[in-house]
Amino acid sequence: MRFGVESDAGQFILPISTLNNLPKDKKYKMIDIGAGKKYIKGFLPKNISYNSLDFEGEHNIIFNLDKGKLPIKNNTYDVILCLETLEHTLYPVKIMKEILRIAKPKAIFLLSMPNDYNFYCRLNFLFGRKTQVQETFQTVEKNLHIHTPRVKDIFNFFSCYIRIQEIDYPWYSRTSAQNKNLTGKIFKILDFLIRPLSKISPSLFSRSVVVKGVKK
User: Fold this and answer.
1) Of the chain's two ends, which shows fewer C-beta atoms within 10 Å, N or C?
2) Does the structure show a pLDDT above 90 at 158?
3) Higher pLDDT, 90 or 172
4) What confidence tens digit (pLDDT) does each residue in 130-157 have?
């Protein structure tokens, strides 16, 4: 893997390691659904052809996932990446069916959603604080978190559509990743201490649920 510190990769550790461990003598066509700033692109090996989709920005495909059928042919992609995206959409069930449609029969799926019931989110709720993905009466308009699933909800949802081969429960804080000052260093230490707990109690200590799988 080409990142120096695992905590800097956030929820991308499992996807990055999976993509870099694919056979180098084969070419793969991948689509990054909900690509945002295309963070994952910088970690890809040369044998993976990268395509991105989002509702705005500089992407190969500009499309609002809630608008229906994806403008992509059946059986197009070898790898489907959809990280921290479905919770922002109105119709995740319909979108997952579309994702299956555009995937080749032996495609690899790398999917994730945030655990909005981890201890940090629970503390925010207890003390009446809002996070950056919560804004009263603006959830749909600003593409915030429409759905707030638990760990078991996420696992059960993905299990309906793919055969899960591997699962990761990462813990990371945006403060440690985005700040290089003393505050960022303190949060990096806290992340290091919390991360082992995510394996013991994912519902409390995981920031996201990330899965790797194939079609059933």
Assistant:
1) C
2) yes
3) 90
4) 888 888 888 888 888 999 999 999 999 9
Q: 114, 103, 113: which is closest to 162 by C-alpha?
A: 103
Strands 48-54 and 28-33: parallel
CA gap 23, 165 in Å, rounded: 18
Task: Determine how β-strand 103-114 pairs with β-strand 208-215.
Answer: antiparallel
Nearest CA to 71 among 94, 85, 53? 53
Grouping H, G, I as helix, E, B as strand and the rest as coil, residue 94 is helix
Dist. CA 191–CA 74, nearest whole Å: 41
- Tell me the CATH class for 6-117+148-215: alpha beta
The pTM of the full predicted model, rounded to 2 decimals, is: 0.91
Q: What pLDDT is recorded for position 187?
A: 79
